[in-house]
């Protein structure tokens, strides 16, 4: 049900790759991506730095809190997020977000443009360089996947490139503590992602499930080294509902579980309007920034006192 695509096929047989990707994007909105160019040791490096960061005492993480950050960067402590906005239950996880990296002197940062902020960093050797190297690598991969999407939608192959030059992409490391068995506990509540594409790396500990339209919750299989890729709401809207974003959740894991999500949203000023050839527009135009802001505002609750 969740197909496994080989990224190498995008070079060897682009037509077959984009067709397989198009089918996955129309049907489940999820696929696994094997044989990709993101180095294994870079993935291992991010997991190792994530473990070091999350095991720091709270008083060292608190100054980096995402709650004080207008640009969706920093540490989301346990109990502050509820991805299922119909639930009062908060997610049992902590996370740390890295956005598109800009210097404090960048004119857009100085002007306070939405999503154009600086990253915040813990004082851990190698953390920043490793996370930024991963960010660049997965950003590149995500843009190439949009070439295949463009081909599937009968658009010029480089159609999306202009929309992802300096994207509102977020690299998010996540850590889910082992379940306590308490009633109603959830790792990440049922939700759809907000952006265009999400590329997720997991550590193999089960918990991630998807609920295809008209179906039941189903485990996402683990293929070592492969990305779990899914369509977000922004691409669903952009494709005028040709592609589907699919609800997913993370059950409280039996053992601590870690994952690395990369949410690829477009440039803030990109205008999201029904793509050519997708029929009568179902949604009004909106900028990438306005769309993402409206979705984030629904997710965060204030820090507990
Ligand atoms: O941790 C995971 O496996 C998935 C997390 C997720 O779906 C999200 O943060 O949007
Ligand atoms: Fe998600």
From TrEMBL:
Keyword Metal-binding: yes
An example Gene Ontology biological process: ethylene biosynthetic process
SUPFAM superfamilies registered for this protein in UniProt: Clavaminate synthase-like
The EC number(s) this enzyme carries: 1.13.12.19, 1.14.20.7
Record domain Fe2OG dioxygenase: where: 166-266
Pfam families, per database record: 2OG-FeII_Oxy (PF03171), DIOX_N (PF14226)
Pathways involved: Alkene biosynthesis; ethylene biosynthesis via 2-oxoglutarate
Cross-referenced InterPro entries: DIOX_N, IPNS-like_FE2OG_OXY, IPNS-like_sf, Iron_ascorbate_oxido_reductase, Oxoglu/Fe-dep_dioxygenase_dom
Cofactor section: Fe(2+)
UniProt key word Transmembrane: no
Any one GO molecular-function label of the UniProt entry: metal ion binding
Family: Belongs to the iron/ascorbate-dependent oxidoreductase family.
Name this polypeptide is given: 2-oxoglutarate-dependent ethylene/succinate-forming enzyme
Organism whose genome encodes this protein: Primorskyibacter flagellatus
Lineage: Bacteria, Pseudomonadati, Pseudomonadota, Alphaproteobacteria, Rhodobacterales
């Amino acid at each position: 049900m969740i197909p496994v695509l080989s990224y190498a096929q995008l070079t060897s047989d682009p037509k077959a790759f984009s067709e397989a990707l198009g089918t996955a994007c129309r049907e489940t909105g999820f696929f696994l991506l094997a044989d990709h160019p993101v180095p294994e040791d870079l993935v291992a490096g991010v997991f190792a730095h994530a473990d070091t960061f999350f095991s720091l005492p709270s008083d060292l993480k608190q100054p980096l809190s995402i709650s004080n950050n207008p640009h969706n960067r920093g540490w989301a402590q346990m109990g502050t997020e509820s991805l299922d906005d119909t639930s009062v239950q908060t997610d049992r996880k902590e996370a740390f977000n890295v956005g598109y990296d800009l210097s404090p002197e960048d004119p857009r940062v100085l002007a306070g443009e939405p999503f154009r902020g600086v990253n915040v960093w813990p004082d851990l050797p190698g953390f920043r360089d490793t996370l930024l190297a991963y960010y660049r690598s997965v950003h590149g991969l995500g843009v190439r996947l949009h070439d295949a999407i463009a081909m599937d939608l009968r658009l010029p192959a480089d159609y999306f490139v202009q929309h992802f030059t300096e994207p509102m992409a977020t690299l998010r490391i996540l850590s889910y503590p082992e379940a306590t068995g308490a009633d109603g506990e959830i790792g990440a509540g049922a939700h759809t992602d907000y952006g265009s594409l999400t590329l997720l790396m997991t550590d193999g500990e089960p918990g991630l499930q998807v609920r295809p339209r008209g179906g039941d919750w189903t485990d996402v299989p683990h293929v070592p080294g492969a990305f779990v890729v899914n369509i977000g709401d922004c691409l669903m809207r952009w494709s005028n509902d040709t592609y589907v974003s699919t609800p997913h959740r993370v059950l409280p894991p039996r053992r601590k579980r870690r994952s690395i999500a990369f949410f690829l949203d477009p440039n803030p000023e990109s205008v999201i309007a029904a793509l050519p050839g997708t029929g009568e527009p179902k949604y009004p135009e909106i900028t990438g920034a306005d769309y993402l802001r409206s979705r984030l505002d629904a997710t965060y609750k204030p820090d507990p006192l």
